Amino acid sequence: MKFLTAIIFLSSLTAIFPQQHYLITNITNRNKISLDGKWRIIIDPYEVGYYDYRYKPRKDGYFLNKHPKDKNDLVEYNFDKSETLEVPGDWNTQKKELFLYEGTIWYKKSFNYKIKTGVRTFIYFGAANYDAIVYINGKKLGEHVGGFTPFNFEVTKYLKNGNNFIVVKVDDKRLKDGVPTLDTDWWNYGGLTRDVYLVEEPETFIQDYFIQLKKGSLNEISGWVKLNGIIKRKEIDIHIHAAGIDKKFETNENGIAEIKFSGKFKLWSPDNPYLYNVKIISGTDTVNDQIGFRSIETKGNEILLNKKPIFLRGISMHEEAPFRSGRAFSSADDRTLLTWAKELGCNYVRLAHYPYNEHMIREAEKMGMLLWSEIPVYWTIQWENPNTLENALNQLTENITRDKNRAPVIIWSMGNETPRSDARLKFLKSLIESARILDPTRLISAATETHYDRNKIIIDDPLGKYLDVIGVNEYIGWYNGKPEDAIKKEWVSEYNKPLIISELGAAALYGYHGDKNTRWTEEYQANVYKYQIEMLKKISFLRGVSPWILMDFRSPRRPLPYFQDFYNRKGLISNRGEKKEAFYILRDFYNKLKSN
Ligand code: GCU
Q1: Total H helices, total E strands in the chain
Q2: Is 43 exposed, middle or buried (0-12, 13-18, 19+ CB in 10 A)?
Q3: How many Å apart are CA 557 and CA 503, to the nearest integer?
Q4: Which letter, b or e, does each residue of 473-501 get, where b requires 16 or more Cβ atoms within 10 Å of its Cβ?
Q5: Can you name the residues that pair with 288 across neighbouring β-strands?
Q6: Pairing of strands 443-448, 409-416
């Protein structure tokens, strides 16, 4: 009954999170109209379009998209005479004056629509950073908080034949009680950063489903299908022709069908990223998806992919666009980043520190790249603030809901470098409990806190008890000690669990050369990697590593002229795609591992 528990849990979330309008999954294969392209904008640092001079929410805000009725009518804004921004895209890299802007920008998109009988319509956002309030034809649809996960609202009853307009107030101000909170080592790219669609569905449609191998099984599928609509009790057909599977199930009074069947499957893996066409039919609705089946589990300190031990040859990433910088959002961006990781010899990528666009997951699925997916519970958030917990739980739910059928995702990470405390442990434990209900098939991890006792590195973070895989970040040779100190280190763990060193590394400015003791040179970075690799070879329970980081990325914490210029330079590749010396050192190590 576990899955049904998850569904009831999910359905109860709608009550807990007023903003949670149950997510339509598999947007890739849905019947949709793109609203991408130029959107009119109004930059509104004082939120004049939302609050009156008494700082009370206005009834006649910019969401009405008003135009003067006559020459006497006073209207102090006009979207159609205002400038535009491209969607998807962050605003910071589209306009010089918005590079450092944090605040509110209003987006408006007009579109023609023809109402169709028996068709329900939803507006779907891949993401909006950070707090988005959405209106259609002047009516408020709802609000979404969290910059990296999708959300949708039903617009059927508000649509008109002919001209319609969507207005979105996007505010990316950093907040103390936010997730993430005020301080991060990445650029706060604001705006409608991912695709926007109108999605058309029949009156009762297949809203969501979970079709994956049962934990620890190579041939038993266990999952569910959830309908949205008035007719709850319906027949569900599942067809996986390539596996000779044609099954029928029945939904219950909540429109949920529990599904169980077994089959002989070509298992998905980085070497053989085989995807099955899966067809789900219910009444008038048919959903197609491309799903890979693989099992992932741990046994002692082993990570088993399809029952075989695997070492995760990885790299960490930020969702930063290669060459042009700014938030990456397209399949092309993502293919470039994943291709570099493949060139490095990787079979695994840590998607730091927040959920990425769905294109990235789908490209990894096709290219055969295992993924660590994380929510931005980063550094010191407000552990005792119930709103902060609700926010983090919502981002976790949306992340898992969107990607639970994606084979490459093997690890859900609950956070990064969060300081030990009882409040923090309580907070993270409730995230872990929810993740295990939402998806009992994947591994749970986090980048935990170790402590050093002279040459001993001790893994004893109390959080480790609740994780399947322990993540640890260390910067021996950059933030602490000398590069050569690494080989003196002895790693000790209180847990008989696999260790992933989720970050290690050093910075270098591409093309800056000198002796190996001079910081910022490629030689210094390379030297750090040489000693790190010697240390890694000695850690008996190490089962993966994702050095920091694939490509230099923008960070407001890095102002050092010439060497940084608001870039974190720990990339193995520069932001212009130039490979540094350390790239080849790690590549050679991985190629050796591969040939073992
Ligand atoms: C931290 C952190 C990263 C950061 C990196 C660095 O460990 O997790 O987000 O960018 O170190 O300092 O470069």
Answers
A1: 7, 33
A2: middle
A3: 18
A4: bbbbbbeeeebeebbebebebebebbbbb
A5: 279
A6: parallel
Query: What digits encode the pLDDT tens for the residues 173-192?
Result: 999 999 999 999 999 999 99
Q: Which residues contact 595 (CB under 8 A, 6 or more apart)?
A: none
Cβ of 365 less than 6 Å from ligand 1: no
Buried b / exposed e along 16-28 (16+ C-beta atoms within 10 A): ebebbbbbbbbbe
Which atom of ligand 1 is nearest the CA belonging to 507? 13
For residue 5, what pLDDT band results from cuts at 50, 70 and 90? low
DSSP string, 141-173: EEEEE-SSS-EEEE-GGG--SEEEEEEEEEE--
Separation of 379 CA from ligand 1 center, angstroms? 10
- CA dist 259 and 491 (Å) reads 44
**C-beta of 185 in contact with ligand 1 (< 6 A):** yes
Q: How far is the CA of 352 from the centre of ligand 1 (A)?
A: 10
For residue range 310-346, what is the model confidence (pLDDT) as tens digits? 999 999 999 999 999 999 999 999 999 999 999 999 9
- The CB-side HSE value for 11 (13 A sphere, CA atoms) comes to 12
Centroid of ligand 1 to alpha carbon of 474 (angstroms): 10
Show the 3-state SS of 370-385.
EEEEECCCECCCCCCC
Using the predicted structure, report yes or no on whether residue 12 has a pLDDT greater than 60.
no
Name the phi and psi angles at 113, rounded to 5.
-145, 140
Q: Which of 317, 568, 569, 572, when mutated, tests ligand 1's pocket best, judged by the most ligand atoms within 8 Å of its CB? A: 568
Sign of CA dihedral 462, 464, 465, 467: positive
Tell me which of 199 and 16 has the higher pLDDT.
199
Amino acid at 54: R
Which runs of consecutive H residues, i.e. helices, occur in 443-548?
A: 522-536
Distance (Å) from CA 99 to ligand 1 centroid: 22
Distances (CA, A) of 72 to 69, 75, 271: 8, 10, 69
Distance 413 CA to ligand 1 centre (A): 16
Nearest to 169, CA basis, from 81, 122, 121, 103: 103
Tell me if 474 CB under 6 Å of ligand 1. no
Q: Is the CB of 416 under 6 A from ligand 1?
A: yes
Calpha distance 477→481 (Å, rounded): 5
158: left (phi over 0), alpha (psi -120 to 50) or beta: alpha
Judge whether 441 and 497 are in contact, CB under 8 Å. Answer: no
CA–CA gap between residue 478 and residue 434 (Å, rounded): 36
Confidence of residue 552 (pLDDT cuts 50, 70, 90): very high
Does 417 sit in the ligand 1 pocket, CB within 6 Å? yes
User: For the segment 203-261, what is each residue's pLDDT rounded down to a tens digit?
Assistant: 999 999 999 999 999 999 999 999 999 777 889 999 999 999 999 999 999 899 999 99
Tell me which DSSP letter residue 487 carries: G
Instruction: With beta carbons less than 8 A apart as the criterion, state whether 152 and 358 touch.
Output: no
